[in-house]
Amino acid sequence: RKEVEQDPGPFNVPEGATVAFNCTYSNSASQSFFWYRQDCRKEPKLLMSVYSSGNEDGRFTAQLNRASQYISLLIRDSKLSDSATYLCVVNDGGFKTIFGAGTRLFVKA
Amino acid sequence: DTAVSQTPKYLVTQMGNDKSIKCEQNLGHDTMYWYKQDSKKFLKIMFSYNNKELIINETVPNRFSPKSPDKAHLNLHINSLELGDSAVYFCASSQVFGGETQYFGPGTRLLVL
For chain B, how are helix, strand and coil distributed in percent, rounded to 5? Predict the structure, then answer.
């Protein structure tokens, strides 16, 4: 089992749609969780941290389920500019930060 | 102001050559990293340095040697380049070690012919 697993997609959605991504992690001792965004031929950038209580930033909502060891990202009212690869990132509670392979999103007009 | 910068941006070279990639961060961070992103877009940690000391060295061939002359710089030297080394190499930094937001450089696209 991979340490961090994501559905690679691609997800093709129309503008205005709501889309959700899930990510599972294998190490129950993991302590920190993030979603990063990577545009084509660019570097990854932090989208948001994920907290146990769940957190929201505008149209983006992140949830953490420690019991089931998964993280989710919900994007509401998708924009064309949301088209990117979304990377699930987990810190293993020690020294290592592990990136998932990413989920590709295409938002169409 | 560029927070994390890398040079060169593109590197095309022949098999067997030796090359270096430089990274600098002006964020005052203590920790720097090297990642490799292969053709399948999988981003994998190679090295982590904290206060100029090597903390993590993943299963990377010893042809890859990182060097940190000071906290703001982490360079990557690659000996005897192989075709499989072709990838995008990202440098990143974080304020402290483990669990913190990482800031990435723009990447160095290495193509080995």
Answer: 5, 55, 40
